[in-house]
Amino acid sequence: MPEVDSTSDQRTVNNTMRHAYRVLTDEEKAAMASIKDQGLAFHDYLAGLGNSRELSLAKTKIVEAVMWAVKHITA
Question: Whole-prediction pTM value?
Fold first, then answer.
C-alpha cells in the first residue's frame, strides 16, 4: 500500500473509510503536524521510562488525544 503524508492533499488514497476530505489550509497542516510531533515526543519520552500498566495506559491516551485533536482540525 502506498504511503501518503498526513498533511498531503492526496490523503484519501489509502483511507477506506473516509472518501471525501476538504483541502486543509497551510496553517491547519502545520497545526496537525505539530500535534503529531508533540504527541510522538511525549510518547517516546514515556517509553524511555520503562514498562508498566500505568505507562501503557498513558501512551494509549496520548495516541487518543492526538487522534481527537487531528479530528478537530480535519473535520
Answer: 0.76
